[in-house]
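Table 4 source record.
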Amino acid sequence: MATTSDLRKGMLIRYNGMIHRVVEYQHIAPGNWRAMVRMKLKNFETGKTIEDRVRAGAEIDVVTTQTRDAQYLYDDGTAYHFMDNETFDQIALPREDFEDTLIWMKENQMVTLLLQENGQVLSVEIPNFVILEVVKAAVALRGDTSGRVMKKVTVETGAELQVPDFIKEGDKIKIDTRSGEYVERA
């Protein structure tokens, strides 16, 4: 078992029965009291951030993980399917768990899977930027030149986002997958 002296930012630990990512930590030695470690942890499943204190030197349960490169194959409506690039095994992940992330992915694109030691997939990391084609866009209105005019479009993966008024159907656009925002025309 590791102790609080082994804590590092970004490390995954099991705390109160759930997996958390260490956002920040600080060792505190207040005068003649016992030393403690103040931790800020982000729950891996719910995304909620908590702060807690533990005694310095207390044991912590470090979650061992590994990453695997995989190819996104297809979406069958209930699950996303991937192929491990090393073993060529197919992996199916429930759609509801990863829908927010994978809405930006086209078939055959590469992703990185974060796996727990038992083989369970914790997260899917996609590229920060993707280039997608606009398949549905409203027609721009003439004469509306006041400031930055935005409209809603649908891209080839089915995702919807706000883009400048000059974007039309058939255009390829660059999207920041972390925020879901338009970056530029590709």
